[in-house]
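Supplementary notes for students who missed Thursday's class. We covered one full example, reproduced here. Read the sequence, then the structure, then the short commentary at the end.
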Amino acid sequence: MNSASSRSRTLKTVGALGMAAAAAVLMTGCGQSSDSATSAATSEAAKVVPQKQTTSPSASAELTEDQQERKKVLDATKVTFDDAATTATGEVAGGKLVDLDLEGVDDDDRESPSPTATGSPTGTASPTGSASPTGTASPTGTSSASPGAEGPVWVAEVAEKDGTVHTVRINAVDGKVIEARVDADQDADDKKETADRLAQATQTPQQAAKVATEKKKGTVTSVSLDDNEGNGVMWQVDVVGSDWKKTTFDVDAKNDTIIREETDND
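Structure (token representation):
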């Protein structure tokens, strides 16, 4: 009786130990399987989802050669368009301004703008200047590519009542007159044409410059009286914006309306 009971207890104990061992093996196997599955899933996700990357802001575009030249000239200029115009007309008794340009700003680029153009910032009380709207050479017969030894120079054409044109050169740093002389190559037809244009222009160059700068902020760099393709006369106004791009405005010289405008992105 005692022997049988002892054997029964022993079998129960061995059985319990066996079951415990089997359970431990199963649990270990499940843990390994779970860890492997998790590791594989993580690996696959890494393949699908790219790592986050940071990008640095792109550098601002560099200025073109034309923009650099405009900046160079305008940074050196201290006399505004309005002041230069007043000084120039003061050199000719009863004279009226026909053309005023700052040497070194787009001297060789003076064409009437196309009708489909955008404007650029307009003028404030900063220095101004541009090529001759009429495409004429500077009084010396050459055009300056940049401020000369005396610094930037305003070149004005001022006409008497009979159309006789005087060229006045003004230092754009201190406002002093460098030279004032009558153009020697004018004939009777040239004088008549100039006088006729001035007679038709009921708006002043200052008014035209104001119209242009109200449209786009920037600096007035040239104003010139020109023919509007047979439809009266116009003031052609150049304005250089803070981005150093130039916009040319054709402004009707009778009613101050903008006829055309074009921005030079170079």
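Commentary. The chain has a mean pLDDT of 75. The beta strands are 96-102, 122-123, 153-159, 165-171, 177-182, 217-227, 233-240, 246-252, 258-264. If anything here is unclear, bring it to office hours.
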